[in-house]
Write a structure and sequence with these properties.
GO molecular function, one term: transcription corepressor activity
Mean pLDDT: 78
Helix content: 55-70%
InterPro entries: ARM-type_fold, DNA_pol_V/MYBBP1A
Keywords: Nucleus
Subcellular location: Nucleus
Distance between the termini: 48 Å
Shape: extended
Largest sheet: 3 strands, mixed
Pfam families: DNA_pol_phi
Length: about 1300
């Protein structure tokens, strides 16, 4: 039903009012329109404004009209309007207490009477009653008038019959009313009215919910004796009522199937069971033996959600029992089976339940019980809970400490029988005894280590320093050592492993330990120790409260373990040489710590961290890092000697040896080949501290690694070898990244079913065989050597067919066939091995390329640090060409994503950090000639490039070199000068720049840009040059003016206009050319513009029009400037050319070209003529219409109509009249009707029966062009066919 009909039905009984305020006040009436708007903000604003208006005016007729409109609007057809009217009515009743609630209730019953309303309006009337009761409830006055409460409840009871429309809303409203009234009102007024509903509580979830709410609110009224009379039992939860409760819960679970929420009745029943001390009975009988016996679906989901909601309500003992029971087992099986994408997953809901429980619980024992319970849910050994989980951050320190102890004990002594194994039926059938148990233990330990690492890595977790150190020592000990004998000084030796660690588990421990080192390096100070730091002081990371580094404490712990071999045995014992290197590293760290005590030096802590990190990596790869440790020690010794002998002359022996910085840079490059983010971070920090000492040779060593032309040399092969040694562990590079992959993939991958895994393996094998066969086919011709070998095998067994005999198969006996089969099998197996070897070689080469590129990306870190820290060093100039080579090579080759990342970083360092840096080298010294040669080389290369994007980088490098050569004006020259004089001197200052040579270089480039048809240079490059260096702009401006007419193409001539315009708009250029040179320049530009516009000719092409627009823009600035400055420049020739331009170019009414032209002419006093609007001549248009014959089909394509009826003579005459009157003026008015008449005539039978008026609903949907075609074709056919259509 439409809104208009509803409004008519509402307003029908309204008596006729006199013309008064209600008919005149539009603002007042708009409030009711806004209440029906779909936007909630508009409705709320309307409610506030209506209340304020009624308060201000305080008129009885307006208040009465408001009540009437609001009561009528409760049954509005719009769903969004009903809450608006209900809220407004509630607020009016709350504000104006003089209005009786009983009168409002009577008006609601009368207006929305379900007995008298039409059948179509029953739904709206039901909602009107419901929202009317809600309005009374929202008025907050319901408890003051008990008769109204009774009337509302009775009305809601009558609405319960319309469940198909209102669902459970009436019952919920009754619950809200019960929560508001007092116990006295309930006992005296409502108890008798609700007697039937309370007695039938076990019929529906809503009625049971009503009883539970009444029990919670009025326990004194609903005593056990009263319950005995109502229900037949003094308690709700007992053995007799369990079957009834199960049915109610099943109904509730089905009712919220789409909403995916927990029904409130289930949670209220749980709370009542805890109150009545019958939780055990309810949980075991109603949930485990009742709901879980149903097929998987809503009943199970209700049980799982009830488990999550019950966590904050249960005691420690109840938590342990529930979290180790059947509901948890069924939940685990649901998580395992719901891993497929299309299945419903309840795990995110359970995570939020557990997180809310941990966040709101302050009891450490209950928190621990919850964490242990969910960590005990495993599948094939791996817990279903993700290793990285934010819920851990809510744990209290005591609970976290006990949880870590539980994890460590489970690692040492895996007790799978005490955990809940949620394997699927297929997984249970496929178990293989001992091997399956070993795999389960491995996955469990892997998850435990990931969880311990994630606790340390999460900065939101409240943890003490002792806990962090305890976890780090535990992981380090079991990664590299094993306990032989318990020791009081080494707590880790007291825990005995029930199952020894295998190599796979140790590999996981090693990777996670170095990930832990990185996490501890970024670990902020704890809250207790951080309170003493000032608010504005920088927060320190990677150190303990006493200021020592975390890694230093771990190195000391490792030293204790190495010194007590009788208690702890290293899994890979050090050789004497490696132990000597270890002791030497510790000695160097001790010396560095002494230097820090004497006076803090820059980089000392970075060197300490580098030594300590290399020392820890000795446990992982002792052979690789042995040489690095020796080089590091010698580097530090030489650096200290050089510092001590800084004021003395260097000895010749020391000059022959390489600088210590060069050796240290080589060491850093070697360390960067290690797949560790922590090493990468430390190398960056160390290099940052030694940047002031870096020499040209050290920088060259870094650039050689990045040089694309040296990829195939031996230097890069060393890097590949270093990475290949660690390639088996993680080809992606990062230890801690691998750790996080283990955390995220552990639970998901491990829970796949074994049959699926076997099927996937078979499919993978088939795919590999197909790929090998395709690879063999792609190779083209068959290998001739393989063909010869095959011929030999066949000839040996006489299996080749000759010309005399057709086939040789019949002549071979069984033994010969077996021998032939063996020979062919051996031959093809050998060929398959060769193909596989080729494939492996290609894969190996591809992996090496990936590793080399990854290593180069790391090396770019050092370049970035050097550019940032030493931007003013002359050595930075040596980075220009290598970086340009990288960019040029990278952009000219088809590259993958990793190559693109390398190219992007190199380009970012070059443009944003080198060329655009405000700090640059200002001490060129004797390198002026070298830099000028570099500039010449860059610009020459720039003009020869094919790609404009690469050319942009070369041009930016040229501008950078010009900036370095010019330098900054000396500060002494500015003293004693005025501001204008100092600014003029700054503009003329060119420093060490050879202006003539540099101008010639850029002049050649400008000539190349203007004289070549395809040039990589762009106008924007020269615009940047002119803007940044006005002195060079003055030198090049004359040539740019000449190219306005001498450009090789029209496009270049337009670009020359752009360059000249940008140049003369520059105030600095105007200042440099002030006086006669500026006037002379304006004369030249004026003459060139006049000549250029004379060359324009007929501007039909887009390029020519664009050039004219550019020329006119320059004309506009020139004319404006000459007139403003009153320069002695003759613009009459230019004005004449401009006036004649209208004859050469067809101007439109509007457009960029036309607007620019008239803007120029405005400066010469010529205004744009106004075009008078004239009405179009209808007669001329009508005469032109029939001449338009576009889109007509030729006669040969027209469909020939068969069985055409012969018209009556009168119809033929009428058709002739229509055809003659078609061309008359004014005939188009009746054209539409004539069209319909023609259609009816076409359908009329030959016997002359009268044609009926066509039905408008059955019009044919034709386009406008088709209709015009019909109008023109039919009269022609009538003339030709003699009255036939």
């Amino acid at each position: 039903m439409s809104v208009e009909m509803v409004e008519l039905s509402m307003n029908a009984p309204e008596p006729v009012r006199t013309a008064g305020i209600l008919q005149q006040n539009r603002v007042f009436l708009d409030f009711f329109w806004d209440l029906a708007k779909p936007d909630q903000e508009v409705r709320l604003k309307a409610v506030e404004d209506l209340i304020q208006y009624l308060k201000t005016n305080n008129k009885a007729d307006e208040l009465d009209y408001t009540i009437k409109r609001l009561v009528d609007g409760l049954a509005h057809t719009r769903e969004a309007a009903r809450p608006g009217f209900s809220l407004a009515l509630g607020q009016v009743l709350s504000t104006f207490e003089v209005i009786s609630l009983q009168s409002i209730l009577d008006r609601i019953k009368e207006k929305h009477n379900l007995q008298t309303v039409k059948k179509k309006l029953v739904r709206n009337a039901a909602f009107g009653n419901l929202f009317g009761v809600l309005a009374l409830h929202q008025s907050s006055r319901l408890s003051k008038e008990p008769p109204v409460v009774l009337g509302c409840v009775q009305l809601l009871q009558s609405l319960s019959q319309h469940r198909q429309h209102l669902k459970d809303l009436p019952t919920k409203t009754m619950m809200d009313i019960l929560n508001e009234i007092s116990e006295e009102v309930f006992e005296e007024v409502l108890l008798s009215a609700l007697q039937t509903d309370l007695a039938s509580a076990f019929r529906t979830p809503e009625q049971l919910q009503l009883l539970l709410v009444a029990l919670q609110r009025f326990p004194q009224t609903l005593k056990p004796k009263k319950l005995k009379k109502l229900l037949g039992s003094s308690t709700i939860i007992n053995a007799e009522n369990i079957p009834k409760l199960m049915e109610v819960l099943k109904m509730a679970s089905r009712s919220v199937k789409k909403e995916c929420v927990l029904p409130a009745v289930a949670l209220d029943l749980l709370k009542l069971s805890l109150k009545e001390d019958s939780f055990q009975l309810f949980w075991n009988n109603a949930i485990i033996n009742g709901m879980l016996k149903e097929p998987p679906g809503p009943a199970h989901y209700l049980s799982f959600r009830l488990l999550g909601s019950a966590l904050p309500l249960l005691s420690v003992a109840q938590l342990k029992e529930v979290l180790s029971g059947e509901v948890m087992m069924q939940y685990g099986e649901h998580v395992v089976s719901a891993q497929k994408a299309e299945r419903f997953k309840l795990a995110p809901e359970m995570d939020s339940y557990v997180s809310d429980f941990l966040a709101g619980c302050q009891d450490a024992d209950r928190q621990l019980a919850g964490m242990v319970g969910f960590s005990s849910l495993i599948n094939k050994g791996s817990p279903l809970m993700p290793p990285v989980w934010r819920g851990v951050q809510h744990l209290q320190p005591a609970a976290l400490q006990h949880y870590v102890e539980w994890l460590k004990n489970m690692f040492l002594k895996p007790q799978l029988d005490k955990l809940l194994d949620c394997s699927t039926r297929k997984q249970k059938d496929n178990r293989e005894g001992k091997e399956q148990r070993e795999n389960s233990i491995f996955y469990l330990r892997k998850w435990i280590v990931s969880r311990l690492s994630s606790i340390i890595d999460n900065h939101q977790v409240k943890k003490q320093e002792d806990l962090v150190m305890d976890v780090a020592r535990f992981v380090f000990f079991h990664a590299f050592f094993s306990a032989k004998k318990a020791s009081a000084s080494i707590p880790e030796t007291k825990g005995k492993l029930s199952v020894p660690l295998d190599d796979k588990t140790r590999g996981v421990l090693v990777n996670h330990f170095f990930g832990l080192l990185l996490s501890m390096h970024h670990l902020p100070l704890t809250e207790d120790s951080d309170k003493g730091t000032a608010a504005n002081q920088k927060r320190v990371q990677g150190v303990r409260a006493d200021g020592t580094m975390w890694i230093y404490h771990l190195v000391q712990y490792a030293q204790v373990l190495l010194d007590q071999p009788e208690h702890a045995q290293c899994s890979q014992p050090f050789s004497p040489e490696q132990r000597k290197a270890w002791d030497g590293m510790l000695k160097m760290v001790a010396n560095l710590k002494k230097e820090v005590k004497k006076g803090p030096a820059a980089g000392t802590s970075a060197f300490q961290q580098l030594f300590l990190l290399v020392a820890m990596h000795l446990f992982k790869a002792p052979e690789e890092l042995l040489g690095i440790t020796k080089d590091l020690q010698s580097c530090v010794d030489k650096a200290q000697e050089k510092k001590a002998k800084k004021k003395k002359k260097q000895a010749t022996e020391q000059e022959e040896e390489p600088e210590w910085v060069e050796v240290l840079v080589d060491i850093l490059l070697s360390l960067l080949s290690q797949p560790s983010r922590h090493i990468r971070h430390v190398c960056r920090t160390v290099f940052s501290s030694i940047c002031p000492h870096v020499t040209a040779a050290a920088l060259t060593a870094i650039l050689d690694v990045l040089d694309p032309e040296k990829d195939d040399e031996e230097d890069s092969a060393v890097v590949v070898t270093d990475d290949n040694k660690t390639q088996k562990k993680n080809p992606n590079e990062e230890d801690d990244e691998e750790m996080e992959e283990d955390k995220s993939d552990g639970s998901d991958d491990d829970s796949d079913e074994e049959e699926d895994d076997e099927a996937m393996e078979e499919e993978d094998d088939d795919d590999e065989e197909e790929e090998e066969e395709e690879g063999e086919l792609e190779e083209g011709e068959v290998d001739q050597k393989f063909r010869q070998e095959l011929m030999k095998v066949l000839q040996q067994q006489n299996a080749l067919a000759t010309e005399e005999d057709g086939s040789s198969d019949e002549e071979l006996d069984d033994d010969a066939m077996m021998a032939l089969d063996k020979g062919l099998a051996a031959l093809f197996s050998e060929q398959k091995k060769k193909n596989q070897a080729k494939k492996d070689e290609r894969t190996k080469i591809q992996k090496e390329k990936t590793l080399v590129r990854d290593f180069k990306i790391k090396v770019l870190d050092l370049v970035e640090v050097f550019v940032a820290r030493q931007a003013g060093s002359p050595l930075v100039l040596g980075l220009v060409e290598p970086l340009l080579t990288i960019i040029d090579r990278g952009m000219s080759s088809d590259s993958d994503q990793q190559e693109q990342e390398f190219l992007r970083r190199a380009a970012d360092i070059f443009r944003n950090q080198l060329c655009r840096s405000k700090v640059y080298c200002r001490t060129v010294g004797d390198r002026q000639g070298e830099l000028h040669d570099l500039l010449d080389k860059l610009m020459t290369k720039c003009q020869k490039l094919a790609d404009s994007s690469v050319c942009l980088y070369y041009f930016s490098a040229s501008l950078y070199v010009v900036k370095v050569l010019r330098g900054a004006p000396p500060a002494e020259a500015k003293e004693g000068q005025t501001a204008d004089g100092a600014a003029a001197n700054d503009l003329r200052f060119m420093g060490n720049l050879d202006v003539d040579r540099v101008s010639a270089i850029f002049r050649d480039a400008l000539t190349s840009f203007m004289g070549r048809r395809k040039s990589p240079l762009t106008a924007q490059m020269f615009t940047d040059l002119f803007a940044r260096f006005p002195g060079l702009c003055v030198q090049l401006l004359d040539q740019a003016v000449q190219h306005i007419t001498s450009g090789v193409r029209v496009h270049q001539q337009g670009q020359a206009c752009v360059l000249v315009l940008r140049a003369i708009q520059n105030k600095e250029v105007q200042q440099l050319l002030s006086g006669a040179p500026w006037t002379e320049l304006c004369v030249k530009v004026s003459g060139q513009l006049a000549a250029s516009l004379q060359q324009a000719g007929q501007a039909e092409s887009k390029v020519v029009k664009e050039k004219v627009v550019r020329t006119l823009e320059l004309c506009q600035f020139l004319a404006k400037h000459v007139h403003q400055q009153k320069l002695s420049v003759d613009l009459e020739p230019l004005q004449k050319v401009l006036q004649s331009l209208t004859s050469a170019i067809a101007f439109k009414k509007t457009g960029k070209l036309e607007d620019t032209y008239w803007a120029v002419m405005k400066h010469f006093g010529v205004m744009k003529p106004k075009v008078e609007k004239t009405k179009p001549d209808k007669e001329a248009e009508q005469q032109q219409v029939p001449k338009k014959k576009k889109g007509f089909l030729p006669e040969t394509k027209k469909r020939k109509k068969r069985n055409q009826p012969i018209l009556e003579p009168a119809a033929a005459a009428a058709a002739a009249n229509n055809s003659t009157s078609r061309d008359k003026p004014g005939a188009d008015k009746g054209q539409a009707k004539k069209k319909h008449d023609k259609k009816t005539k076409q359908k009329r039978p030959a016997d002359g029966a009268a044609a009926s008026q066509p039905n408008p609903a059955k019009k044919s949907k034709i386009t406008q062009s088709e209709s015009k075609t019909a109008k023109k074709k039919k009269p022609k056919q009538k003339k030709e066919g003699g009255g036939q259509m």
